[in-house]
Amino acid sequence: MLTNTRNYSLDTYEDIDFIHNYYERLVLQEILTQSSRAQNGDRDFLADVACVALNRMPPRYIRHDVDMTFFMSPQDIQEIEHKVIKAVSDALIYVESRERGEDPKLPAVEVSLIGTRASKPPKTAKLVTSEIAPKKAAKPKTTKK
Q: Residues 69-92: what's their mean pLDDT?
């Protein structure tokens, strides 16, 4: 974020508005696509659903959307779209269920949405036998006479 705060005067939210979570706009657009209630101006409902959905997405803070999309493949963009649709669908069900007094459970979600994962080899654990198995005591050498 800002590395030297003494050079900045952050008196209002607009002063830091240039930093945002990449998924905020995508999630809000998807809520408006899926929910007539949000389309009709229920701001509290929109905010509740957005918070639930965004908490199911990984945070990706950027200055400009192009900063993120420039490095993503078409497959990554499609994966993000599917994950946003799923997060919003789950959030809508969750918020509406809570309003009815039910105790809904959100399904587990995988939050890996990084466009550079194909360029990095998967991490593998290196097995070092000396750390796992105790060393065997060396047998004394016998000499033949």
A: 90
